[in-house]
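Example 3.
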Amino acid sequence: MSPLEFILAGTLAAATPLMLAALGELVVERSGVLNLGVEGMMALGAAVAFIVAYQTGGHGLAFVAGAGAGMAAALVFAVPVLGFRANQVAAGLALGILAGGLSAMVGRPYESLTIRSLPKLDIPVLSDLPYVGGVLTQDIAVWATLAMAVAMAWVFRSTRLGWRIRAVGENPHAARAIGTPVLRLRLACIAFGGALAGMGGAYAATVYTPLWADGMIAGRGWIAVALVVFGTWRTGRVALGAILFGALSIGELVVQATGVRIPSQALAALPYVATIIVLAVISSNRMLTRRHSVASLGEPFDP
Amino acid sequence: MRFELIRRDRASLEMALMAPVLALLAAGLVSWALFAAMGVPAGRALWTIAATPFSTWYDFSEVLVKTAPLLLIAQGLAIGFRARVFNIGAEGQLLIGAICASAIPVLLPSAGSPLLWVAMMALGMVGGAAWAAIAAFWRTRLNANEILVTLMLSLIAAQILTYLLLGPWKDPMGMNFPQTRMFQPGALLPGLLPGTRVNLSLLFGVAATIAAYVFMQRSVTGFRLIVTGTAPRAAGYAGVSAARGVWLSLLISGAAAGLAGAAEVAGPLGQLQRSISQGYGFAAIIVAYLGGLHPVGIAVSSLVMSAIYIGGDNAMVFADLPQSAVLVVQGLLLTFYLIAATFVRYRIAWTGTARA
């Protein structure tokens, strides 16, 4: 395999946990809520999914468990934010610390154990194509995540549910006036976002690197939050951003493999540096961010 | 069970004082249930956390040692939080401050001045402020969200620290441990209480408390800063610059965190090592909120948070409680505080009827 093919083949797998978490956060933010606890929800989802996969050997069950753990954690965030109009930044940080600590506690007996990954699907014809065959040979979770992105774009563009979520995010008072249950819809979005973050963690710990280690999410939850900004709250752009950052993390591996003498810490910091730079490029276009950002983002709903 | 929140005519002082106490009780109760469910001897663990930090003079002196960085960082952060500038990367500013301060003893191992630590503290403050200044520039000139930038800068700072400790700054006689050599005596902070590890950094924290009180409660600049956060539009009409508020908030909190990092390496540790911070930068966010973002409240909440750290260490030894349990307690504490703090401005009314 040429280095380019290797990068392309690995990119989608590396992008999947980011895409899952970022799509989840996108739904939460489109409803007007900022949840900064993604890193913690991913970590808890990863730990719980790994434990289930280790005990049962089933990846399907592991993903369900990871989603459930992420959702449960998200509900801990929903109580102060929706029930008590608390500061969303602080509540999100609290969730991140709490869920991160819980992941380390429940995962402790499983530290550094490994399991088997999901098999790559050999799709007739597609997988045999020259050049792109490697890229198209992916596990089922990658395909499911891409399908989810497409479905989500459709929901936001052309369904009643999508329009209601957008209305609640743009102007919750107007949405309530026409009969949309603002808090209930936001609760559903927060729970859904938590489930996707948990599944992102599940993919990271049971498929991408099938092992559990404390701190293994390594900032991916925060990059997912940044991806929503990069994608200017648009589903397609958020998914594309996740793929670009997936390519970046595979690029690290390639650089290491070529034997170029760069300190590994510089490579590890690369996604964080890229995040800061891209954030500047996107945000400095004030027209772009103002036109697309969610009007009521971060503000408690006071009926 | 349905309820409505009704805005009070004026903020309730009783609730403001009660909220942290209620949060502590609720966090203790839920931690107990969680730990018990995970098979940890929960009663013994929580008793150890609550009681041992104040049981002996030595334990209490250790509480004071950890109070110093928490107090210092939280006072800086609270100023920004009141201006709605969310610096959540104090952890990174602390690390950069510690690195900058360590540069003096590491690069000048034979420097014999007994006052080296003064220069180290200054360098630590400059380093922390410079690291935070990146986020200020990104926010004011490039419109980039400071929450994400400060957090990313923290992750980068951790990598820089690892690089230095595994590479150029590693102690050649250190048996390959990722740490620098021990600093010379002049590079260490003078002790404050004989027989304990309490040092000058506690006084830095006290000084920061007094300075924060004067600045936020008494000065015009502090008042303007708060207005840019609570009423940005009014501030704009009155000619108060929002950008200036961002710079001020980030430089102050960055310098405070940098000083805390410098004081850690020159204080209890005496060298630069990987575990210079036990998450102080994040814990200080909780300390700031728990103290109601008020300088006096923060002085109390930093003692409480420090006691949780010391108690957690003791519980690790006596009750086999994992270190990460302290994070669980911290996260619950902030969550419950945010719920309780709502009742400072709102009162609850129970309603029987369904409501969207």
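The mean pLDDT of chain B is 92. The longest strand of chain B covers residues 2-7.
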